[in-house]
């Protein structure tokens, strides 16, 4: 204990230094236009956090079923209990309170509200649960920032339709969204329809590593699917489902409830691997086949030109009616930004097989290395390299392409390997996570200050270690460590650092307002 407290004192000094470094640079226009309304939060999702997988009338969802199939999850675990936030939310609110966040991003479990989709009744117990959570958050001055679906849908709908492959699911989503706005919209001011629909479409329908496990060779080995076509059909239905939900919100609720609605995209920055025109165009295509794929239709009413050129008839078409409904179909863009990759042209000079090289991925090889050197320090997962410069480039790109639509950094975080052999010191003294957050926040602050990017909030992924999809519990993102057996939450250095960072920023904002 003695040793721990001495090192804790040392760590706190470090924390202060990190904070002072950021604040004293006087770059903190993290307040942006909306000054004191800037949201600092942590992010989560229902399947990764809640547990209680069949409690109080909830039915099975696609992830319940998928994670129970042997071989799908690296460590053979599932989200049946996860970190049991369904029961322990008051305790988690204490942790948030201590850190001083003013917002919490979480998602609603569709199967908890509508166990059978629109083919059954509303589950009152599910409504009650989220009412309690929302009220408890507001009581502590923490704004709920709510996602309607974070990869999970009632299994009933996956079985009926193959999930997002059917246009009929648009009506289900509209119906579900309407219920959420009706029951929770008097208190929820920030709605996002989907979390990372680009990842969902790619992993669910191209590589098949997420439910509904659709794919075809050489992209993956599944029982059924068509990796070259289905991702675009699923995405098309998701885009129209988003539009349907936004339409309901705008026509029935927004005026009275005075909230805003957007969508959250996974946003990887693609850096051209060389200064050649071919590689620059490849990076642009990579972006179009990843983010603009969704945001262009929602903001501009059409798919990116590169997608039309390369996909031809494989790209579904929007009707005139769709296009009208889609335009300006969001109030904000949620950006989940963690990492960057290099992008190399494969259209002019063909590449060996690899990620991104196919026609339906835009002929742009995605690689983490250039001349044998990583784009940033590797982490515990093969998709996350520390490259804070990407934050500035990504936010600037989205700002410019989408007319400086208000943005939120809805996720940013650092992965470490869960390893029972690590010492307490290694487990809790997460200096690499602190340095990651510090550098990415610094880049964000610079972008807001120098480019005038309208960023209105920042959420760390995540408050707690949790169920990391196909990696199970082998990877940890938490500001707090969670013991897998007792579920005890213990703060890491990064929790204290974030707390101090928020205090310093809040002081700055207040003094700027005087
Ligand atoms: C993005 C996803 O939204 C979230 O569910 C996931 O756990 C984190 N990234 C980390 O991979």
Describe the protein in words:
The structure is a single chain. This protein has helices spanning 2-24, 46-49, 62-67, 85-99, 110-113, 124-139, 155-161, 169-184, 197-205, 230-257, 277-300, 305-311, 320-326, 389-401, 424-428, 431-451, 493-513, and strands at 39-43, 103-107, 115-118, 143-149, 190-195, 260-266, 269-272, 332-336, 340-345, 364-367, 369-370, 373-374, 377-378, 385-386, 407-411, 416-417, 455-460, 475-476, 480-482, 489-491. By secondary structure, it is α/β, with parallel strands linked by helices. The strands form 6 sheets. An 8-stranded parallel beta barrel has the order 1-2-4-5-6-8-15-17, surrounded by 5 helices. Strands 7-9-10 form a 3-stranded mixed beta sheet. Strands 11-12 form a two-stranded antiparallel ribbon. It has one domain (6-513): Glycosidases (TIM Barrel, Alpha-Beta Barrel). The radius of gyration is 22 Å and the shape is globular. Mean pLDDT is 92; it is low at 1-29 and 31-35. Bound molecules: 1-deoxynojirimycin. The site of 1-deoxynojirimycin has 9 residues, from loops.
What are its keywords?
17 helices, alpha/beta, 514 residues, disordered N terminus, TIM Barrel, binds 1-deoxynojirimycin, 20 strands
CATH hierarchy class name? Alpha Beta
Largest sheet: 8 strands, parallel, barrel
Q: Any idea what the CATH superfamily is called?
A: Glycosidases
The CATH architecture is Alpha-Beta Barrel
Span between N and C termini? 44 Å
DSSP summary, beta strand count: 20
**Neighbour order of strands in the largest sheet:** 1-2-4-5-6-8-15-17
CATH topology annotation: TIM Barrel
Which structural class matches the secondary elements? alpha/beta
* Radius of gyration (Å): 22 Å
Strand content: 15-25%
If you average the pLDDT, what whole number results?
Answer: 92
Q: Tell me the overall shape.
A: globular
Number of domains: 1
List segments where confidence is low: pLDDT < 50 over at least 5 consecutive residues: 1-29, 31-35
